[in-house]
């Protein structure tokens, strides 16, 4: 059984993106060890052999899905988790019990992110509500409003709170000066998470309207004339880490059937969904083109997930279609 990894959060004031910084930390450690780093006996805690996270106050070049810009001012959560991936040939966790993500979890990792993100949000809201002395039933009402949108978004009252990106990375370097860079054979999944806590971007394309966690707190304070404390990025990062790795080291949860069923249970099926489409338009100044994001006018509604976690939607004519990787507004 894999061990729950020690919490390892690396904080920075400003980065280009947290994912870029995570790749940089992995590569530096790999090059320093000149290839020996990927043996399973490497001590726990080294950034290239155990999970770690990069958390930043702001990003200068934050990215959303499809290359969209993710506006990243201070006050929100910008985080990337680096997760070692089990070698496909091994098929088993490392002998020393160190954490490595089973390859079977990769197809549904996006769903896990949505489930864990929702649970982290709800846990912190309930903790802050309880600390202010408010009754528990109000927290239950929040449960019904904080939902998920396939494949990983967190939604409050039909507005987007967070989203995530997943990338894979294999560090490479030249073993000798003058030699070409070679891959190390060690694979990582990088899970980038962005959560609107204090601010949310004004939607300038066809994207879904957004809101923030502390807007929820403001609503509760106004409703109850209370002084519920605001949520901070650091406490959300710590809570997300604990719940994420607690989920993946729980044998009753870390399987495809449980994940698919759990996500479908909290998925907001009342949302009107649209496929995202792009088109090229002349760039400002007349040189080249720029990509414009828009939405297909066809309204879709989530019906359920299939056994692989793919979304089945209903179209206006009543027919259904299974979506594998399309991005939906």
UniProtKB/TrEMBL annotation:
GO annotations of cellular component type: cytoplasm
Domain BPL/LPL catalytic: 50-175
Key words, A-Z: Ligase
Matching InterPro entries: aa-tRNA-synth_II/BPL/LPL (IPR045864), BPL_LPL_catalytic (IPR004143)
Membrane spanning residue stretches: none
Organism domain of life: Eukaryota
GO terms of molecular function: biotin--[biotin carboxyl-carrier protein] ligase activity
Cross-referenced Pfam families: BPL_LplA_LipB (PF03099)
The enzyme's E.C. designation: 6.3.4.15
Coiled-coil spans in chain: none
SUPFAM superfamilies associated with the record: Class II aaRS and biotin synthetases
Top EC class of this enzyme: ligase
Alphabetical list of PANTHER family matching this protein: BIOTIN PROTEIN LIGASE, BIOTIN--PROTEIN LIGASE
The protein's name: Biotin--acetyl-CoA-carboxylase ligase
